[in-house]
Design brief:
InterPro entries: Bdr, FAD/NAD-bd_sf, Ferredoxin-NADP_redctase_2
Radius of gyration: 21 Å
Strand content: 15-25%
Largest sheet: 7 strands, mixed
CATH architecture of the largest domain: 3-Layer(bba) Sandwich
Distance between the termini: 17 Å
Pfam family, one: Pyr_redox_3
Cofactor: FAD
CATH class of the largest domain: Alpha Beta
Structural class: alpha/beta
GO molecular function, one term: oxidoreductase activity
Keywords: Flavoprotein, Oxidoreductase
Order of helices and strands: EHEHHEEEEEEHEHEEEEEHEHH
Number of strands: 15
Length: 323
């Protein structure tokens, strides 16, 4: 029996664990994959837009070679914090069910061997993030193996016909990197411009590549159907079919509302923002708290920079209740 079970081992889950640990509160973090798995899924050569000091957790300094750290540097930092602070985390334990008892919660998790592991605690913190649940285009062929929702690197797609769907930073970064690695790139975006709301560091390259038609841009367009060797696109000029070997659907992510709602947490149907007290982060379900980007639903208003502080408020409220 723990005082607190934290579900999710991302930066905000780790930060919450550190805050509880500092107060002597018994906790365990359950993570279905590796620690900070959302960062593991980032492009291999990615450099974050946030400065290193804004990604620190537990008041532990993070020094990177440049002001904005790389994926590799950030992964190393969170590994070192986990090891040196002896954070109590179980990785590769996927939560399958949560049930509420009279004065506690029972969490069932499945380990890598398929065994059922049972945990109990008086309180729960949901720090599940959103990046494990990509949004779907919702068209025929989306389940094909050539369709991917995360982008790692471009070398494997040299000489291939590759479509990127989306118009935010992740899609623009992928399109640029694919072109630089020799892929034939098409960028498909529902909006009329690929230049708005993206990192300044991407603007010059994407504008240059689109204007010189090094990247074929389809504005105000959407994918209609995905086939083995082609895709069809709704465009302002009508339906267009283009050759296609691979498609990256990078249109965003959303929280796992099924798990939240299974224990009674109310969720706004339009934004997927859960109901919670902004002072304590407690949900409408007693003794269930939220930490991190899951609090923002699909609004994209909460990032690591903000979510890493949620654990402090949560730990203070939990400490008050345990006294």
């Amino acid at each position: 029996m723990y005082d607190v079970i934290i579900i999710g081992g991302g930066p905000c889950g780790l930060s919450t664990g550190l805050a509880l640990q500092e107060k002597g509160i018994r906790y365990i973090i359950i993570e279905k994959e590796a620690i900070v798995n959302s960062i593991v899924n980032c492009p291999l050569d990615m450099r974050f837009y946030s400065t290193s000091d804004r990604l620190e957790i537990g008041n532990i300094p993070f020094l990177s070679q440049e002001a904005r750290p790389t994926r590799s540097e950030l992964l190393k930092y969170y590994r070192l914090v986990t090891e040196r602070q002896s954070i109590n985390i179980k990785c590769y334990h996927k939560v399958t069910r949560i049930s509420k008892e009279t004065d506690s919660f029972t969490v069932h998790a499945e380990d890598r061997t398929g065994s059922d592991i049972v945990y109990q605690a008086r309180m729960i913190v949901m720090a599940t993030g959103i990046f494990d649940h990509p949004k779907r285009i919702g068209v025929e062929g989306e389940s094909m193996s050539k369709v991917m929702h995360y982008y790692k690197e471009g070398h494997s797609y040299h000489g291939q016909e590759v479509a990127v769907v989306g118009g935010k930073n992740s899609a623009i970064e992928a399109a640029i990197d694919l072109y630089r690695n020799g892929a034939h790139v098409s960028l498909i975006h529902r909006g009329d411009s690929a230049y708005e709301g993206i990192k300044p560091s991407l603007l010059l390259d994407i504008r240059n590549f689109i204007q010189k038609e090094k990247i074929k841009f389809y504005p105000n367009s959407s994918v209609k159907e995905i086939k083995d060797r082609s895709i069809s696109i709704h465009t302002p000029e009508g339906l267009v079919s283009i050759p296609n070997d691979y498609l990256f659907s990078l249109i965003g992510y959303q929280p796992n509302t099924t798990m939240l709602q299974s224990i009674g947490i109310e969720v706004d149907p339009s934004t997927l923002v859960p109901t919670f007290n902004p002072s304590t982060y407690e949900t409408n379900v007693d003794n269930v708290f939220l930490a991190g980007v899951v609090t923002g639903g699909t609004t994209n208003r909460v990032y690591i920079e903000d979510g890493r502080f949620h654990g402090l408020a949560i730990s203070e409220e939990i400490e008050r209740r345990l006294v």
